[in-house]
Amino acid sequence: MSLLELDGVKVHFPVKKGILFDRTVGHVYAVDGISLKVEAGQTYGLVGESGCGKTTLGRAVLRLVDVTDGSVVLDGTDVAKLPEKELRSFRRRLQMVFQDPLGSLNPRQNIESILSEGMAAHGIGANQEERRERIREILAKVGLPANALSRYPHEFSGGQRQRIGIARALVLEPDLIICDEPVSALDVSIQAQVINLLEELQESMGLTYLVIAHDLAVVRHISDVIGVMYLGSLVEEAPSDSLYEEPLHPYTRALMSAVPVPDPEVEERRERILLHGDLPSPANPPAGCRFHTRCPWAQPKCSEERPELTDAGGGHKVACHFTREIQDGTLTPAGSDAVVIPAQAEAPAEETAKEPEPAAPESGEAAESGDTSATASEDVSEDVSEDVSEDK
Amino acid sequence: MPLLTVDELTVTFGGRGRKDVRAVNGVSFDVDQGQVVGLVGESGCGKSVTSLALMGLLPSKGVTLGGRAELDGTNLLSLTPSKMRDLRGRDMAMIFQDPLSSLNPVVPVGVQVTEILQRHRGLKGEAARKEAAHLLDRVGIPDPTRRLKEYPHQLSGGMRQRALIAMAVACAPRLLIADEPTTALDVTIQAQILELLKELVDQEGTALLMITHDLGVVAGLCDQVNVLYAGKVVESAGRRELFAHPTHPYTHGLLGSIPRLDAPRGEPLHPIRGSINDQIAWADGCAFAPRCDRYEMECLTGTPELTEPRAAGHHARCANPVLATTEVPA
């Protein structure tokens, strides 16, 4: 059995109008029917752009917002239906690491007080001395010095503050840690430190994470399973590698092609899908497939019928009517302003000519390895360009 | 002759009784006509202060500028405020990071765009409105005539950034400075904006100084890249050369820190240890030495010079640069 199971979770926020009588004039469909499973000891990555409902979903798991419909089952207990009193003690098993490390730490509490408050509330440790001992252990684990205990949040750097946030979750020995954009406020060099720390902790303590982030590269790096959200629902869910190697949903493909890769060679060659326009409002989502307004492959059926998340084989689930047609190329991108630029086999000749000759002796080796990578991607890109050209 | 020459630029903020802070500590680079030059670095490295100094947007009190910055022969650092106002928007323009706070919330977008056209191109009334609509259309805002009457809060984030770009290119400046133009945007919108910037540079021949922390953005856009650390350029090279052979340990470390979408899963990241120090002390050795895995005793004395340890045109400020290809992080 999975540690966490969400089944048809919906979170709708009412939109109210009027001064005396709050008339509900509509709803914001922040989360609209999400089912997923998180296995113990694994990392589930939830990725999507702003406004897709990923943070609301994370908060719904902790019941920081009430669930409109559906169930959130952690280890056999439905969090969504737990009475208030039991919920409080149950929350020990669900902890959260927040995005803004400074904003989520009380500036007037020292680190010992921040970390021991939750422990005292949940009755961990018989006395302060015992708790302090435990906190010291955890601080060492997250890479903070023991003298941090008597210091205040402003005395730490951003990366260290995020370590404190992680320690605060860890001291309660939770079953599941929800990380909401754990590294997006940090510089890249610090980001890598925190990502590595999360991975190390998972390995040594057997933690389970639900990581919520907008950065597909970060999510792919740390997750075992990735769910891609668009306007309140999952459009694709797959094991990390399979999602990267074979993104099936047009939105995932567009998202992937939009993530910049720090390598000019790759940047010039890979497939690029430029979506047109912005995310529609979750208060007034389009009928049918939520993505059809921006999808390069949209068909009449897409605006009428909402596709279900179905298994396309090997645990790779996708919510699209035309997965197979798009994949085998019988459906071409048309009828939308989005631009699809197929991956190119080689960099343009004049560009290559401009490249200065590297002076170092190992340049021969480098050129060779460059060639092999080019042929490898050639195979992939040929498939793609054939797909497109066949139907023209 | 390059369009923009920045030579040993220094910006020092007076510390009000405390020690002065030198945010930019001798930055030099050139931008040629039609070229895209990247300034890359983490927060606090001085990249934004450099751009503000070039645009003359730093407060006149408490800030000391040093060095030289010339746009087509005009020294930007010694211009009078009124001369600077003539230049700004006409010859050089800036695109800011946060499109919402860079637009006046109580003035319709149209008025904000026509203001520039009036000031620099002398267009009035209907002619100015027409040109403004044309500009919004040029940057890909649908239904421009209607949008001109709307207020910034009625536009989406991507559209606000487009409006800001429209204002920047209104007078066809020769130099555009973009300070983290896509950081506040979602990736799919970022891709749209980067495409637009590329198009403008290709079609109008505008030079672009791109300031960003995102090496991925640089890889797709810039011709020449300058990596900043603690107020100094530590590495400077052509885009392909820099990414294929990062020579300064900091650049090397940055590339090793970024989780890559196309890297095989399970490949560990190689972060740079520690964090950037507030007390920038290039005078007593390399400022990166405390975080560097390759530092030697000589790194702790004197400021390292920019040299060309690998190839001509590839500068690095390091006494012990990374030279072997085998050390390049995957």
TrEMBL record, chain B:
Protein location: Cell membrane
Domain ABC transporter span(s) in chain numbering: 4-255
Classification via PROSITE patterns: ABC_TRANSPORTER_1, ABC_TRANSPORTER_2
MF term (GO), any: ATP binding
Domain of life: Bacteria
Chief place where the protein resides: membrane
InterPro entries: AAA+_ATPase, ABC_Ni/Peptide_Import, ABC_transporter-like_ATP-bd, ABC_transporter-like_CS, Oligopep_ABC_C, P-loop_NTPase
SMART domains the record matches: AAA
Key words, A-Z: ATP-binding, Cell membrane, Membrane, Nucleotide-binding, Transport
Membrane topology of this protein: Peripheral membrane protein
Similarity section: Belongs to the ABC transporter superfamily.
Protein name per UniProt: ABC transporter ATP-binding protein
Biological source species: Streptomyces omiyaensis
